[in-house]
Write a structure and sequence with these properties.
Helices cover about 40% and strands about 15% of the residues. By secondary structure, the chain is α/β, with parallel strands linked by helices. It has one domain: 3-Layer(aba) Sandwich (Rossmann fold), CATH 3.40.50. The chain has a 7-stranded mixed sheet, sandwiched between helices. Helix 3 links the parallel strand 1 and strand 2. The relative contact order is 0.14.
Length: about 260
């Protein structure tokens, strides 16, 4: 009411809109747990799509996992793939409708485990798709089991004594692996554990979509994300876990950036 009075007195000429929901994001509640990074990552993707003006021709592909209902949250054409098969579905969509901008939204259990073959060969072929890879080092939806990206010593429901490399191997660094392939235009890793890192994540997502728009090849943005529920941590402590435990194992940075993307 005080602001209205100030405006009525002519001291404030008009209101400036500084924050609003992106058109590419529906005005609905999500099913994600408190403190989960998925909702924030959704917003970053939606903001980039709006800013690039590509919503009308963008198609999202979500597989089984925590983001299984992503099609309910993005206000654009979307479809559901079988567990791990989002890159295959995205490949078909992009080849049939090459004018479309196609992206997959995948977790680490989906992409790095059952979908490992799919993501590898999509990258080998240099498919013109964008992959958003959310790495929270655990199977989130199915009960907190060990994932291919779980850390050494990390306790999960299927590694109650902590991940032992002699039994379960080592965490897999998918993004570094894919960066070695000629068909890959962009391979970067970012994080959601601090405001500065969130801004860098948005910039990386934008670069990934630009790589597809420019026809440069396959693009992947890996994002280190929190899972307070399955890590048994508070939301704030989960962000610290990313910084202190995940980043040393999964270093942030650009592993491959095609010429022209930083111009």
């Amino acid at each position: 009411m005080e602001s209205e009075a100030i405006r009525d007195e002519g001291l404030l000429a008009e209101w400036d809109l500084v924050y609003s929901r992106p058109q590419a994001l529906r005005d609905v509640a999500t099913h994600y747990c408190p403190g989960c990074s998925h909702g924030s990552i959704h917003r970053l993707i939606a903001e980039v799509i709006d800013e690039l003006g590509i919503r009308a021709r963008t198609i999202g592909v979500a597989p089984v996992g925590c983001a299984v209902f992503a099609y309910k949250y993005f206000n654009l054409d979307s479809c559901e793939a079988a567990h791990g098969r989002a890159p295959a579905m995205a490949t078909g969509l992009k080849r049939v409708r090459p004018e479309s901008i196609v992206f997959t939204y995948q977790g680490d259990g989906d992409l790095a485990s059952i979908g490992g073959n799919e993501i590898l060969h999509a990258a080998v072929r240099g498919e013109q798709i964008t992959v958003i890879f959310v790495n929270n080092a655990v199977y989130g939806m199915t009960g907190g089991q060990l994932a291919p990206t779980s850390l050494i010593g990390q306790v999960t429901t299927s590694s109650p004594f902590g991940r032992d490399p002699a039994l379960q191997g080592y965490p897999i660094r998918i993004t570094e692996m894919l960066a070695t392939l000629p068909g890959v235009a962009l391979a970067v890793r970012r994080s959601m554990h601090a405001p500065a890192e969130v801004r860098k994540t948005k910039k990386a997502i934008r670069m990934a979509f630009q790589a597809q728009i420019q026809g440069l090849g396959f693009g992947i943005v890996e994002i280190l994300a929190s899972c307070p529920t399955n890590w048994h941590l508070s939301a704030n402590a989960a962000l610290d876990f990313i910084r202190d435990e995940m980043v040393p194992v999964f270093p942030l940075g650009d592993f491959k950036v095609a010429d022209g993307l930083n111009d």
